[in-house]
Amino acid sequence: MEPIYLFDVAAQQSRWLAVRQNAVSQNIANANTPRYGSVDVEPFEAIVKKTSLTMAATSPGHMSLSPSEAMVAKAKRSESWSTVHSGNSVSIEQEMLKAGDVSRSYSLNTNLVKSFHRMLMTVTKG
After folding, report:
1. What Å distances lie between residue 9 and 1, 82, 106, CA to CA?
2. Could you tell me the pTM of the whole model?
3. CB atoms within 10 A of CB 41
């Protein structure tokens, strides 16, 4: 049976969502820190586009390629809705919207994996 890569993509997205949730929580935690600039991570779609597929070598005579880079979500400066007099650019409302987006994406990811797993179990049981 061929490997199923849907689970790998779902796991990558779960890791990305964890990194984004961490960035959002750090922004909220530093909402009153002077000169703190809010950060966000690169969109998941951009990370997936950068990920390249590698060929599997099933024989020692096959050519091998260097391993692809692991998914890395880098924090970057986020565009904030406002900057207060202390130089802080964290908008609590914007961060709460991001947190809601992360929650919805994680729920969708989990439900898709559950549905796919259920479908595989149905097929294998007969």
Report:
1. 18, 35, 13
2. 0.69
3. 21
